[in-house]
## 1
Amino acid sequence: MRDTTTYIGEIMEALPNAQFKVKFTETEKEPICHLSGKMRINHIRCSPGDKVEVILNEDRKLGRIVKRK
């Protein structure tokens, strides 16, 4: 299993295909993230301004939103 680290960020912009641009509180990076499968199944909506928990991939450019706070 991969070593995963979760980050807390804020959704800055909603993009097509259920993707979002997220800005992290501790860094200035803005990766593009998509909703996790459980969030899609349970119809959890996210909009700009929401605080979210994100898991990033190895190159830190793409991520998956796993929780809305």
## 2
Amino acid sequence: MESEREKQMYSMKISNSVLARVSALVASALIVVACTAVAPAAAPAASATKAPEATAAPEATATTESSAMTETTTVSPTTEVSSTTEMTETAPVSETTGVSETAAPMVSDGVVDVADNPTLGKILVDSKGMTLYVFDKDTAGKSNCTGACLVKWPALIVEDENTAITAGDGVTAEFAVITRDDGTYQVTANGLPLYFYYKDTKPGDVTGQAVGEVWWVVGADGAKITQK
């Protein structure tokens, strides 16, 4: 009996020893598996560490490009462009002012003469032979040509309201002097104010005839001539 029990005890020891070894092997296998699973995770961590270096390069490039853009903007001065624009806009103003000054009414010597035009007949001119016109929008004793109108149609002006108007041979129109709204004194023929035209550059020119169907040369009798 004791021998049988000893055998059983021996068998149990062997079984426990085997189980212990198997357990040890299983534990070792689990450790190996665990280490293998951890190792791949380390690689992404390393990649994550390098990622900022890869990102840093584009940031540096972006900064460089941004700087380049800023420098380009600085090189193209907006102020200079504005100055050019201002100069361009100022030029017409200066020219307009010049025209206004040139076209300003010149004081006449008070002589109204007559000239023989081959198409229009005998017409009124000043002492220098420049053609005189009347304006349909005027009324007797009142000029309605002001501002920009006077640039193209300068008035026949004399020094003061007491200036005597001298009529040339063959002129039968009645002359007088009126005070304009701007304080100057304009000569009238049969009550209508007399003007020059800025496109008439020499004696005999009648380029203002029938302009706008409201401007007309004047006959020796003071009546407007509507012939074209």
